[in-house]
Amino acid sequence: MLTSRTAAAVTAAALTALGLAACSDDGPDDGKTHITVTIDAGLEQAAIDAFNARVEQFEDANPDIDVETQEYTWTAGTFTAQLAGGTLPDVFSIPFTDGRGLIERGQIADISAYTAELPYRDAFNPNIAAAGEDADGNLWAIPIAAYGQGLHYNRTLFEAAGLDPDAPPTTWDEVRTAAKAISDATGEAGYATMTNGNTGGWILTTVVDALGGRTEDAGTATIDTPQMREALAQLQAMRWDDDSMGDTLQYDWAGINQDFAAGRIGMYVSGGGNYGNLFTQNGLNPDDYGLTVLPLADAPDAGVLGGGTLAAVSPNAEPAEQEAAVAWIDFYYMEKLTDQAAAVADAEVKAETGQPVGAPELPVFDQATYDEQQSWIAEYVNVPVDQMAPYTSQVFAQPLVNEPVTATQEVYAVLDTVVQSVLTDEGADIDALLATAQADAQAAMDAAA
Amino acid sequence: MTTTDIRTSGASGGGVAGHQAGPPRAARPGRPRARLARARSGLHTLVFLAPMLIVFGVFSWLPIGRAVVMSFQRTNLVTDPVFVGFANFQQVFADPQLWTAIQNTGYFALLALLFGYPVPLVAAVLMSEVRKARGLFSALAYLPVVVPPVVAVLLWKLFYDAGEDGVFNTILGWFGLGPVAWLQDADVVMPSLVLEATWAAAGGTVIIYLAALVGVDPSLYEAAEIDGAGVWRKLWHITLPQLRGVLLITFILQIIGTAQVFLEPFLFTDGGPANRTLTLLLLIYRYAFTNSLGGDYGAAAALSLMLAVVLAAFSMLYFRLTRKWSS
């Protein structure tokens, strides 16, 4: 018979063993391949329902695969932590800028054997496919969306300021004039820009590209340029001369979307496909929304900064899980771009659950494939396409510029500081700021090399 | 050593003495039983210690040891690490942002010391003078500590709204002042963070001081009152000397805490504007999580290790220098 002390000791040991056993992460042994896929964080219930409906369709078509969902939104800080901690879902999305680096360092799974089997493997726009390829041209991550930056504007604030919402600004001078008009008439920020978490550098780079400059030339930082001075001088004038940038001067991507959707911002620059986030996660009133192309300077190298999203697979996924993950990417992200039935099914589910269908994107394949896909879902389009016409009617004619590739996030962080200085220090010396930023950016690029 | 241990030790000693003198046979079985009991006792101790040892080992000591190793590695925690000697330390020292972060952290610590350190002491002394509803005041002082830090920061972001309709700016407006860009003006932002941090943390220190004040002999105050001492003379000549041990501890805790400030600059300003609130821990966070190398954990661990060594050395020096006073 056990003494009470011995019984207590055995219980303690058993509990410890149980606790340790609970740390193991074995999936259920039901003969299926289990994968975890990404669902955007903070979606409205209708969007979650639409996603779950697609999961059921996939599981019906693939009875040997079980799909679990995990909320995920890429941000520079959380992604790196999740990657190191091994807590990413099996399928996750990353921006084009991170693809090459993650592939070179082996931080995502090599799924090229499976992607080579995809029927549309060779149909990708080569420039876009390159973001997910290794040096030998093997596709490790699949491009699922591409965008060009755009100027988002609030039509209601335009009207309140006596501006014509159907004739948005076409030059940066007109942007400044409209911003002042909105600010004077409504008290809201006429123009706002992102500043934090490397997004300040991202948007500043966008404007510099639109003015015909670049921030990198094959591993050499080109920060201290006339275009950069022009972009910063414009910000300085709007902030301190016109007082048209409102009271909040520190924004990241989520924060600026939130304030724009709430009607506190007249104009801001971000990806042309932002409507989905504004509507489903920030409750944007569609009637308020307007989208136009970025004003491009009359300069030979002026272009619109592009970017996009890659679907990648966790390096911890086993081969069977990798294969299942590619099947999911093919089903959820790609079939709707290449197969009429899938495109219609996806649009139908989204339309039925009140989710946006038809928000503008750039083609990941060729223009003809994109146009055909748009024709398949035309009857389900429920976004205010007329209000996006200033963008969709011109963006395909704008020269597309790729994001810088060397130490991208570090250089963006350096430029964050420059933007913040200009917006918060009335006496900011742009020459001195750029001299420092040039040195810091070059140091970051040298370190990355 | 437990009571049981003492008893079995005593029994064992008696057994040895008995053996030398030719003990009766009845005593012999006591030796193996004593050994068995001692062994069982040690086993029981080990079993009961095991969960604590495992938890501390896995979640505290192992990560600390791992961080020390990592500071000499180039690693992204996915692929195999590579030992790089002191390269991470050289990289950190060459980073101009390190000196910015040191200056900012020092500035935060100084402001917190000037304004945040005396506040709980004064509050505790005043509350100890109150005859009625002392519990209510204690609860009110401690309430901010109970508020989750992230919620507190979100709340204070509303207070600090730079517009004229922000809470603090509205109050300033009543006196014809402001508006102030609390979190966006480079000269104001750090004091703003210190103000919130003091509000959030002072309650815990107030409770410590109140508990210490209970231990002060009331007859000292009574004698001082008879001698005509006022509140401030009592504070200077009785309270502070009587609390010096606690004050020394809270001082060093304050220094260690403020040297590791992260939450406020991370959530309020993300280090801005223009790195004016970039602190050492925020720099470590940036090394680890916001760069194109997919996590420069080696540099992050190197700076963490340097900070830990400096704080440990400072603490040892502090206790050595104040040993005489504290005794």
Structure notes:
- The complex is a heterodimer of chains A (449) and B (327).
- Chain A has helices at 4-22, 45-61, 76-85, 96-104, 112-115, 126-129, 155-160, 172-186, 199-210, 226-241, 253-261, 275-280, 319-338, 340-352, 367-376, 385-392, 408-424, 430-448; strands at residues 33-39, 65-71, 91-95, 142-154, 189-191, 216-217, 220-221, 265-271, 289-293, 304-313, 400-401.
- Chain A has 449 residues and is of the alpha/beta class.
- Chain A folds into two domains: 33-146 and 307-380, Periplasmic binding protein-like II (D-Maltodextrin-Binding Protein, domain 2, 3-Layer(aba) Sandwich); 149-305 and 396-448, Periplasmic binding protein-like II (D-Maltodextrin-Binding Protein, domain 2, 3-Layer(aba) Sandwich), CATH 3.40.190.
- In chain A, strands 3, 4, 5, 8, 9, 10 and 11 form a seven-stranded mixed sheet that branches. In chain A, strands 1-2 form a two-stranded parallel sheet. In chain A, strands 6-7 form a two-stranded antiparallel ribbon.
- In chain A, β1, α2 (45-61) and β2 form a beta-alpha-beta unit.
- The N and C termini of chain A lie far apart (70 Å).
- The model of chain A is unreliable at 20-26 (pLDDT under 50).
- In chain B, a hairpin with a 7-residue loop joins β1 and β2.
- A two-stranded antiparallel ribbon of chain B has the order 1-2.
- Chain B folds into two domains: 3-65; 91-326, MetI-like fold.
- Chain B has 327 residues and is mostly helical.
- Chain B starts with a helix and ends with a helix.
- Helix content of chain B is 74%, strand content 1%.
- The chains are: A alpha/beta (449), B mainly alpha (327).
- Chains A and B meet through α1, α3, α4, α17 and α18 of A and α2 and α14 of B.
- Chain A: This is ABC-type glycerol-3-phosphate transport system substrate-binding protein.
- Chain A: Residues 1-21 form the signal peptide.
- Chain A: Keywords: Signal.
- Chain A: Pfam families: SBP_bac_1.
